[in-house]
Amino acid sequence: MTTSQSFIRTTQRITFVVGTMVITSALLAEGLPEDLEVVWSDPPNNHVDVGTDRDVDGKPLGISAVELVFNQGVDLAIESVELLSTAAVPAVVDVYGRGDYWTVVFDGPIAPGTTTILGIDGGRVLLAMHSRPADVNLDGVSDALDVDALQAVLTLSKQYAAHFDIDRDGVLAAADVVRLDEILSGADGGVAWARIDFPPPETARCCCVGGGCDVFAGGCPWGTTQTTCPCTPNPCGYGGG
Q1: What is the domain partition of the chain in residue ranges?
Q2: Which strand ranges, in their side-by-side order, compose the sheet holding 92-98?
Q3: Which CATH architecture describes the domain 1-199?
Q4: What does the pLDDT look like over 173-195, one tens digit per residue?
Q5: Over 80: is that where the pLDDT of 202 sits?
Q6: How far apart are CA 61 and CA 51, in angstroms?
Q7: Of 208, 211, 198, which is closest to residue 238 (Cα–Cα)?
Q8: 127: closest CA among 204, 45, 63?
């Protein structure tokens, strides 16, 4: 297994956590199958985006759409989708597709240094995405070790892998190391990511509110009660937890 393949597999199997999340809405959709599952997505669940969060002109870059393939055909509507994040959360502006293949579009990329969860049907389906610019080796800290990791990839493997394409130009080259150095130093005018520890993770869960369920990540808010996801009808009894 090459170094590149090893890092990619690590990215796919690592389970990340989220601390306190910001809920954007309390959506419980109707009409979606109870056994609905995502069998493929781009980005995949728990994907870590380590590329630059801006282009040379300062325009935000990063994950701004998710492609989904379900285990069956569905009629997905924008009302069925919500985003949760550890910080500012983009808005869902479009949902399109048909059958089992759908695309969810945001009004901008997820914020750098955050974890964002895409929730469908009140939390029945959850998909996590993480933005951690410069954390090439996925150790939760952006520092000089990430430069060493990227240089090792460029030396040992010439095969393209999006995970290491720091400048997002579609090519793995020395320019990615230069861009990585700029992110770490803050030379591009953005956040200096060196030595920043990201929040410890916690799983998303459902919390009973007023006899219904809202999707949260981290602990349930005061006055509410945790229940199993996906939420069943009226899991806390009438009047909530």
Answers
A1: 1-199, 203-241
A2: 38-42, 65-70, 101-106, 92-98
A3: Sandwich (2.60)
A4: 999 999 988 888 877 655 544 44
A5: no
A6: 8
A7: 211
A8: 45
